[in-house]
Amino acid sequence: SPIRLAITPELGLPPPRYEVVAEGPDNERVFQAVAWLGDEALGRGSGTNKKSAEVGAAAEAYEALADRPAH
Questions:
Q1: Pairing between strand 17-23 and 30-37?
Q2: Please, are residues 23 and 32 in contact by the beta-carbon 8 Å criterion?
């Protein structure tokens, strides 16, 4: 996803890692994702598939990082 790829090079940071958990029965599965940078959870997302959950987490993480003052 463009958002997932843009987080790190644009902000000069290492790539985030994503943890994804699936919940519910197979026909109603919901995926919850967390975007981590080091030991800090920066974004969370959910969706009906792994990719959409990761994209949501990446978008939230990007916003959190972009709002931080530069070091």
A1: antiparallel
A2: yes
Token pair, residue 39, equals 């030991």
Compute the half-sphere exposure of residue 18: CA atoms within 13 Å on the CB side of its CA: 23
Distances (CA, A) of 69 to 1, 11, 21: 25, 11, 31
Query: Using an 8 Å Cβ cutoff, are 71 and 11 in contact?
Result: no
pTM, full prediction: 0.80
pLDDT tens, position by position, 16-67: 889 999 999 999 999 999 999 889 999 999 999 999 999 999 889 888 887 7
Cβ within 8 Å of residue 30, ≥6 positions away: 22, 23, 24, 46, 47, 48
